[in-house]
Amino acid sequence: MSAPKKLFIKTYGCQMNVYDSERMAEALGGEGYVETKSADDADMILLNTCHIREKAAEKVYSELGRFKGLKAEKPDLKIGVAGCVAQAEGEEIMRRQPLVDLVVGPQSYHRLPEMEAKAREGEKVLDTDFPEEDKFEKLKNRPKAKRGPTAFLTVQEGCDKFCAFCVVPYTRGAEVSRPADRIVREAQDLVERGVREITLLGQNVNAYHGAGPNGDLTLAQLIWDLDKIDGLERIRFTTSHPNDMQDDLIEAHGTCAKLMPYLHLPVQAGSDKILKRMNRSHTAESYIRLIERIRAARPDILISGDFIVGFPEETEEDFQATLDLVEEVKYGTAYSFKYSTRPGTPAAERAQVDPAAADDRLQRLQALLTKQQREVQDSMVGREVGVLFEKAGRLPGQMVGKSDYLHAVHVADCNRQVGDLARVRIVSSGANSLAGELID
Ligand code: SAH
Ligand code: SF4
Ligand code: F3S
After folding, report:
1. How confident is the model over 222-262, as pLDDT tens digits?
2. Distance, CA 271 to ligand 1 centroid (Å)?
3. How many angstroms from the chain centroid is the CA of residue 207?
4. Nearest partner of 116 among 32, 37, 233, judged by Cα
5. 93 with 240, same domain?
6. Which residue, among 250, 237, 254, 282, has the nearest Cα to 16 in the 3D structure?
7. Residue 239, preceding bond cis, omega within 30 degrees?
8. Could you give the count of Cα atoms lying within 13 Å of 415 in the half-sphere of its Cβ?
């Protein structure tokens, strides 16, 4: 038997890309590829790319340039670009970087084996279709390795919201939900392979409406179906849109013990004028009322958010409204970005904010968010939380895991294994993590 071919995948962007990279590795696993952690000994390199901000897309080209020497040494090396840059730029990638043999959009990963075979014959291959078939169904029945305790599971893909700044509706296509029975089967399979915590993924995950036995299911109904799986201990989901936060999902946060008290609910901005121009179709007030309802159902829930500063036409007063909203909500964690112009999106045509002003706003917002994050983390000291252990710590006998609220927690003298869930009392709060002790 010939030696297995080696595959190096580098993943950028969101969790959905992480999930997709695993599926691509499985698809090519069926063709005799094993994964390697180094590009230097690979027979095939795949960059799974992100197009969300300009810098993310540019990184891809600089990374590709670095493979020039490698390809000169190893003419059989195949280089592929997958993900959202592949979808957005298609053939342009091969024109700009002739090293690239293969370009595959996020909806075509199940066709990778055929594409790889063509590339091996020296063809340049491109597939950025949005085919009708369920790519995940086509990708099942691949070799099944043992897994770590946490996993992502895509339940919904694409987006119909068309926020004025965002490329996702163009790169991931229209919103599609996978049927519930397939998701439940995949979750069962993950649990059999050692997974204890599943994060359900979708660009608009709470808009989930996949087919069930008696009509479409809501995300909350899907979560209740998954709740029945023995051995599955924790369920999370991301990312949600405020307008799709239905009553049954809010209620599930209060009643479903496996559903973790953590919610990523991006708001983007606090000024109604800007929200309107962003096409967000919610107001600052409606978002704050929504957070109140969620906290009424689950008082300890940790709220996470996304923010954009320097969106076209944002004034200092508009930005102040974002700071006011943050003060009111109190975020446990958040991601904030300077607006990045994406060609082809409506906001790209509008009057841009002075970059220095946008930088200054980003710094002020991040200072406030970091302070809040720290306060929320510190408030965990003295509390009892669940911790799912994910790996051994750096010190002997130490284990590291994530709390119900997704904080990293270190436990010294810990006689538990990776994959164990334990009750832990938090004793101190460090720069980026908590320390705790087991409660027997
Ligand atoms: N589907 C998710 C997130 C998509 S992208 C949602 O709807 O919330 C993740 C985050 O990137 C967004 O929430 C937004 O804050 C940020 N983002 C998207 N497009 C951007 C752009 N053009 N410039 C800066 N940040 C952007
Ligand atoms: Fe992008 Fe808006 Fe869709 Fe989120 S809801 S993916 S920000 S268009
Ligand atoms: Fe990036 Fe595509 Fe995800 S643009 S954030 S990889 S959906």
Report:
1. 999 999 999 999 999 999 999 999 999 999 999 999 999 99
2. 17
3. 16
4. 32
5. no
6. 237
7. yes
8. 2
Q: Phi then psi for 157, rounded to 5 degrees?
A: -140, 155
| Cα-only R_g, the chain | 23
pTM, two decimal places: 0.95
Model confidence pLDDT, tens digit, residues 279-305: 999 999 999 999 999 999 999 999 999
371 CA distance to ligand 2 centroid (A)?
27
Domain closes at, from 99, 127, 155: 127
Q: Are residues 389 and 347 in the same domain?
A: no
Task: Answer yes or no: do 74 and 162 share one domain.
Answer: no
In contact, 369 and 267? CB cutoff 8 Å = no
Average pLDDT, the chain: 95
First to last CA, the chain: 52
Give me the sign of the Cα torsion angle 123, 129, 132, 135.
positive
Residues having CB within 6 Å of any atom of ligand 1: 52-53, 165-166, 168, 203-204, 239, 241, 266, 268, 306, 308, 337, 339-340, 342
- Of ligand 2's listed atoms, the one at least distance from the Cα of 159 is 3
- The answer to whether residues 364 and 279 belong to one domain is yes
Rounded distance between C-alpha atoms, residue 124 and residue 84, angstroms: 19
Report whether 252 contacts 220 (CB < 8 A).
yes
Q: Which of 50, 162, 282, 342 gets mutated to test ligand 2 (max ligand atoms within 8 A of its CB)?
A: 162
Q: How many residues does the chain have?
A: 440
Residue with CA nearest ligand 1 atom 4? 203
pLDDT over 90 (residue 142) = no
Helix (H, G, I), strand (E, B) or coil at 24: helix
- Total domains in the chain come to 3
State the Cα–Cα distance between residues 293 and 325, nearest whole angstrom: 16
Asked whether residue 135 is domain-assigned, the answer is no
Q: What distance in angstroms lies between residue 111's CA and the mean position of ligand 3's atoms?
A: 20
Residue 431: domain span: 384-438
* Dist CA 304 CA 364 (whole Å): 18
